Amino acid sequence: MSVLDWTVVGAYFFVMLAIGVWSRTRVENVADFFTARGRVPWWLSGISHHMSGYSAIMFVTFAAVAYDYGVTVYFWWPLTIGLGIGVGAFLFAARWNRLRAKHGVNSPLAYLAVRYGLPTQQVLAYSGAALKVVDIAAKWVAIAVLLQGFADIPLVWGIGVTGVCTMFYVTFGGLWADVLTDFGQFVIQAVAGFAMLFAVMGHLGGVSSLWTMWGDLPEGHGDPVAGDVTLGLIMAFLLVKTFEYNGGMWNLAQRYMSAPNGSRARKSALLSAALWLVWPFILFVPMIAAPLIVPGLDNAEDSYIRLAQELMPTGFIGLLLAGFFSHTMAMVASDSNVITAVITRDLAPVLVPRVRQLTQRGQLLFARVTTVAFVTASMALALFSDPDGFIMTVVVSIVAATMGPISIPLMLGLLPWFKRTGALAAIVSWAGGLAVWAYLYWGVGDASEAATVGFPVLTSLVLYAGIGLARPEDDAERTALVDSLADDPSEEERLALERRFLADPDKRGEEEERTLAG
């Protein structure tokens, strides 16, 4: 990498840190820190939702799938996400927002204590938080692999520099810093992505290469289903991603909660869905074309690095690397913020009741300390992991396979059709799905990826719906909570709730519990 490339990367980090410092002026309390108090414009919420699903994994592991098998990578990943978010726009987006607007909820799990009871809430919170530590560790490894490939920087330094910068801006600026950097990263991604696309087209003979290159690629690279990707795996991912990207991945629920109202949250979801259907395909075209430009690679995970080194001029390598940073930092920052919300609002007060008595300033400090602790734990796991195969194992065999059992009680509990489904169904569906995953992952040596991803979520879904029908639980408080999510509050209700929560900020935790309880 040249001096100009490093200058571009350095400028990127400076801007990210500056956004964190500026966003700190917009954070007065934990409501600002976790949900921006519903003041994020719908289009910014939608872009942030979209960007929070990316990481450098796309340019390492998914680039390898595109290099080895072709266009199938689009069908099993972004297409399933885009379709899933499109469905969720009409089922979940507005309901997440109304939890905040009507009940003052700042954590996606806060409503579960009323919905199912405290034990169920704690089980889902701990299992989800543990999963996120592993997930984020894979993101750190991915960006470190890219740094090592481009600039021969040791993995330890790659993980450390990226982690510390992310820790700084999200700790100071909270959700505002997160969504604003997401937007900046979207712009960087667009410039870098189109630069690579134009470079590939120029190398292959112009715009016509977009439809002529398919005949020159290895056999099967134009097939929607190829290699290890099967139709069963695509359908399993569609089911999992529908839950995961509509709130099962907690940070994405926050994007809906941060919009001004339910209808605008739905618009933000539709924008994110449209971006998922279109933009990743543009990013994948160079990866799919890579065998024509850098053929014969022994390690396909290096394909995007070699492609960039072959085609990109001085300065643009730095821009691409800044784009890689932006993907990873966007996802990690949003995950850090929501995990902090869950720990601060749902876990810590149960373990240490004194947390409930913290002043608003004390809660904000506690949230920032928790953010540092979470990022540090994920970095430590990344540092001690073996990068060979770690990323793909985490992305498919662990995160995708276990996200369904964890998210089904959380997501379906929002819907009116399941308002009589209680704690028994939630706990059994969670435990049953994870048990099936554990058996397939450790007990069956040759289980397919489709089975490992699909069977746990199907098991949880059947158990949740079946037990809910067989043993319905009537509870007026639970029914009122679910019914209240059917429409947005009036302007008078919204203002009254905001005044109520800001009038005595030192007792906000108690107020939140009373509001949820009706």
TrEMBL record:
Locations listed in the record: Cell membrane
Entry keyword Transmembrane: yes
Keywords per UniProt: Cell membrane, Ion transport, Membrane, Sodium, Sodium transport, Symport, Transmembrane, Transmembrane helix, Transport
Membrane-protein topology: Multi-pass membrane protein
UniProt xrefs under InterPro entries: Na/Glc_symporter_sf (IPR038377), Na/solute_symporter (IPR001734), Sodium:Solute_Symporter (IPR050277)
Main location as per UniProt: membrane
Transmembrane segments: 6-22, 42-67, 73-94, 123-147, 153-177, 186-205, 225-247, 268-294, 314-333, 364-384, 390-415, 422-444, 450-470
Catalytic activity entry: L-proline(in) + Na(+)(in) = L-proline(out) + Na(+)(out)
The protein's name in its UniProt record: Na+:solute symporter
Source organism of this protein record: Streptomyces marispadix
Lineage: Bacteria, Bacillati, Actinomycetota, Actinomycetes, Kitasatosporales
